[in-house]
Amino acid sequence: MGCCMHEGMSRRQLFSTAAAPAALPLVNAGVPVGLESKRILRVQPVLTYEIPKRREGASWRQWGGLQTEAELNEEKARIGRDLAVIKAKGPASMEFLPLREAATVEQAKEVAQLGYDAAIIYGAGGNNRILEAVTRPDRWNMIFIRHRSGPVYLWYEIVHPRYLRKTVDQYGQPGVTVEDIVIDEPGEIAWRLRALSGLKNTLGRRVLCIGGASGWGAGGRKAPQIARDLWKLDLVEFSIPQLGERMKTAYADSKMMREAQLAAGKYLSSKQVKLEVPKESVERAFVLTHVFRELMKETGSTAMTVNQCMGAIMGASQTTACLPLSVLNDEGYLAFCESDFVVIPSGILLNGIAGVPVFLNDPTYPHHGLVTIAHCTAPRRLDGKTDAPVRILTHFESDFGASPKVEMRMGEKVTNIVPDFDAKKWVGFLGEVAGNPFMPICRSQVDIGLNCSDQRLAEEMRGFHWMTSYTDALKETGYAVKKLGIEWLDLTAKG
After folding, report:
1. For the whole model, what pTM was predicted?
2. What dotted CATH number matches 202-490?
3. Where are the domains of the chain?
């Protein structure tokens, strides 16, 4: 696969190994070094309406409760209160632009030319041409309609037959579906904005790919290209031999080695950590953590993945990537094993929505109301705040290096995302942590109690790897992926 590089810079210029970067602290507090702030979702509220004039002997007004200037002013104040509710429940990385009004097609067109990511269109009144003019197909749009939350809106009657279907039986409005129509409840707008904020912070993300971008199995061969085309990911590749050179430099740096020893000691000093490998294995892991962090900083990446993590990287780094990826996830980066771009976009999206670390895992066969998921790179700070207990063991398949066996919190609700190879249909379901077994498999292993039929899950499984997090983000994830044309199946949903 070709790599995406900074404009005007060659691979050799970007990744020169002639000199090692200056050593930085190997354990970070607060925001990780070089971690970008979340992109702000800019939201434009707009009110469409028409103030009628009486005409004797003719129909002169539309349905709806906005008939006078006084009622219009009351409604603008009501919208202000709605927006305060939405802001409190929506994503932190969101900005509301001032409310705009559109009582004519010209005003609607002016609003549509403003700079925003998503529009909340309060469809109080106005003809179809006004609503169509304010709806940009290349932006995200939601239509808010009142039934009982205030004066009833005109579009409570006709949003489906006139706006969505254009007076026929087929949908015909670009940029809006039935899932974008919200009646009365500002909170229903808030969770949609959480989804869109997560999507904005996924699209175009730069991902450092140690050992190249890849995808699991025969079905995953096209995954890196799908990631570039559909998710607009900027995949920056860095070879295993280049990593080996960086590691040689790092191991020869006495200051860096001392910092790695201090970082390892700090990590191991917690009563929540049980060491079951030589301490030197953890120290080498923190050297690799530092190198990974530096490479992300150099490339402007806040996400990374490692290919050949059960093979070539062990020789290049003299350790395994397991513990470093776990530590980086806890620091706020996104760090994935296996370079599987079938599933990595789901991890970036789920993290963007939920705001907590995510766990890329191998699933097993669902049965008797549970499924086991496992991998060797689980974060400890799965709720974004609390470090879970962990045993530091070897990586199972190689019996080498340092790998975390994270003990996940019993009864914790988890979202599970099951992406397909072709990015055509994703599956999601809720579950809860039902056990932390210790079988001869990948070290961080969890039994998930299912909130859906195990038979139905078995029938709908696709791809291979799953993505899991401590959260309930199914409706947000489904709403977001449908914006990219991916079908969504929520196995937990009733009906």
Report:
1. 0.91
2. 3.40.275.10
3. 41-198, 202-490
